[in-house]
């Protein structure tokens, strides 16, 4: 990374990724028996650090931003140093929003974030705490057309803002989510989270060891989120098409993102 001042990128959007810095996270991940339960570097206070860099790299490749790609493909320690330079008080938890323009210039926005049990950052089977908040999960009333701006996270988020407004979600602090739906009626993702639903179709073998939870495939148009990748690699879930018409009022689900980890939700259709 070359600078904390992005200037005015051309075209007028940046690729982004948001993650949690939490000094308590290494205590939790360090207590896991092996690296197989959490991606390397396991003892970092940055949640899913390497996945966030990978996500930015994949976005730079998609948009053919060669200068950004060259900058992002440096050693992971360079990326971590870039984040470290933006945090003045490392004994507190922070929400970091990383923005990178087409020239590889980066900016890190640092904002306070509420305290939480870091066990909630692990996939639910590894949780050692009971979720104390259940999110209301709504379904968008209008379809969103998939594009590179839904597959990759960027500052061009008008579709997401519109979906949240239609659902009556007025603040990032709201414990509510809205599910985006593509023109074929398939669930894409949440406006700020990856959703997980109870499995609709079981394997033909009726193998009970298979994951109970499913998440929409990327071909539906949703974002390749970092916590989604973690959930898939940990076999918490598998990909499966979820039609909006299949959802049941009151059914439980999980939601995840790179700042909050995994939270419980309930689908509200009325």
UniProtKB/TrEMBL annotation:
Molecular function per GO: catalytic activity
Pfam families noted in UniProt: Aminotran_4 (PF01063)
UniProt name for this protein: Aminodeoxychorismate lyase
């Amino acid at each position: 990374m070359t600078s904390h001042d992005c200037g005015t990128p051309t075209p007028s959007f940046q690729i982004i990724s948001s993650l949690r810095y939490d000094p308590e996270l290494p205590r939790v991940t360090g207590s896991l028996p092996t690296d197989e339960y959490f991606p390397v570097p396991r003892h970092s206070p940055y949640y899913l650090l390497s996945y966030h860099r990978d996500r930015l790299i994949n976005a730079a490749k998609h948009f053919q931003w060669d200068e950004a790609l060259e900058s992002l493909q440096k050693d992971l320690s360079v990326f971590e140093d870039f984040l470290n330079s933006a945090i003045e008080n490392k004994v507190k938890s922070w929400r970091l929003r990383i923005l990178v323009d087409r020239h590889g210039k980066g900016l890190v926005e640092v904002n306070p974030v509420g305290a939480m049990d870091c066990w909630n950052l692990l996939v639910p089977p590894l949780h050692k705490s009971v979720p104390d908040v259940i999110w209301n999960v709504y379904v968008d009333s209008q379809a969103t057309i998939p594009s590179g701006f839904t597959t990759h996270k960027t500052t061009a988020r008008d579709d997401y803002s519109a979906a949240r407004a239609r659902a009556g979600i007025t603040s990032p602090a709201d414990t509510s989510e809205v599910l985006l739906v593509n023109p074929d009626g398939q669930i894409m993702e949440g406006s700020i989270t990856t959703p997980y639903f109870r499995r609709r179709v079981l394997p033909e073998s009726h193998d009970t060891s298979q994951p109970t939870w499913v998440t929409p495939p990327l071909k539906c148009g949703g974002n390749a989120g970092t916590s989604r990748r973690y959930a898939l690699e940990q076999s918490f879930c598998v990909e499966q098409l979820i039609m909006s018409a299949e959802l049941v009022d009151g059914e439980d689900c999980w939601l995840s993102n790179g700042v909050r980890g995994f939270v419980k939700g309930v689908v509200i259709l009325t």
